[in-house]
Amino acid sequence: MAKKQYAFYPGCSSQKKASADNFLRSIDKVCEKLDVQLNEIPDWNCCGASIGYGEGGELPRLVLSARNLALAEQNMPGQDMVSVCPACWLASRETAERMHESQSLLAEANEALKEAGLNLKGEVKARHFVEVLIEDLGWDAMKAPVVKPLEGLKVAGYVGCQTNRPFGIAGESFENPKYLDKMVETMGAEPLTRYEQKVTCCGGALAFSEPEKAQKQIRDIVESAYDHGADMIVTPCQLCQANVEIYQSEINKKQGTKLNLPVVYYSQLMTVAYGGSAKEAGLDGQLIKAEKLEGIASK
Q: DSSP characters for 48-59?
């Protein structure tokens, strides 16, 4: 069977040796098992994410992503551009859609891009890796490589806000998306479908500017998972993973709690279920060790 190929935009946090390097390791293993090939876009740049909404203006923010889209068109013609980071996906998808809808905006972007020898046609589609898994491969294909069902593992699926608004996954409810629960179930674990914090914001960059507000959000997210009997939280978002894992110890110091719940990526669950080792799943990159998941991996 020919591999499904995509132009791959890693984004800053998921590139090798970055903060979510372990996420990328697990994505690589999932791709290997599902016969997917992610072709990294050469010389890609940061999408701008939060900083792009500073005082630089709208056009410079959009041109950051337009450059990546143009590089994908030039180097991987006909391939959708896939991101694993929700912030990168939002930036890329907004840019792709707006350039497609407005010829004047596309012309302005290309005026800037020609300084780098690039021209955006506006043909490439920006997608999230979860969209590829669900829409291009499907649930049966995702289940087929499972050799170590994650039986007995109770998982709180924390979607967060960026993979849910303003675009979301096609056909999913904004208030109660169920795809992450279904992914958990497909891997043989038990999804905690009544977990009510699944689309709550983790506080994002407020973790730096207004830490008390962010930590209130994080405590609610973790305590609700405990209340539902979760062994761990699973998420598709690097920022959610980092905030909800890292700040548990800070909350414990300030508020006298004893939070210590692992926070992992959906691809780490998939890697273990597909027979991958704890290292291949990137579990060695966790601050709070996912001991039950590591136990399954070691069998």
A: -GGGGGSTT-HH
Residue type, position 78, single letter: G
Q: Is 53:91 a contact under the CB 8 Å cutoff?
A: no
The neighbour count for residue 171, using CB atoms within 10 Å, is: 10
165 phi and psi angles, rounded to 5 deg: -145, 140
Contact 20, 88 (CB under 8 A): no
Q: Please, what sign has the CA dihedral across residues 106, 109, 115, 121?
A: negative
Q: What is the enclosing helix (H) or strand (E) of 240? A: helix 238-255
The model's pLDDT over 51-95, given as tens digits with 9 standing for 90+, comes to 666 667 889 999 999 999 999 999 999 999 999 999 999 999 999
Euclidean distance between CA atoms 226 and 248, whole angstroms = 13
Helix (H) or strand (E) holding 129: helix 129-131
Fold of 145-297: Rossmann fold (3.40.50)
8 A C-beta contact, residue 225 and residue 192: yes
Residue 82 phi/psi, 5° resolution? -110, 135
CATH entry, 4-130, from 3.40.50.2300, 1.10.3720.10, 1.20.1050.140, 3.40.50.720 = 1.20.1050.140
User: How many C-alpha atoms does 113 have within 13 Å on its Cβ side?
Assistant: 24
* Model pTM score: 0.94
Spell out the residues 6+ positions from residue 55 whose beta carbon is closer than 8 angstroms to its own: none
Tell me the C-alpha to C-alpha distance, in Å, between residue 188 and each of 73, 155, 170, 177, 273.
38, 11, 24, 19, 8
- At 45 the pLDDT is 95
Per-residue model confidence as pLDDT tens digits over 12-33: 887 777 678 899 999 999 999 9
What CA–CA distance (Å, rounded) separates 291 from 213? Answer: 30
Q: What is the distance between the terminal CA atoms of the chain, rounded to a whole angstrom?
A: 30
Distance CA 257, CA 260 (A): 9
Whole-number Å distance between alpha carbons of 180 and 81: 22
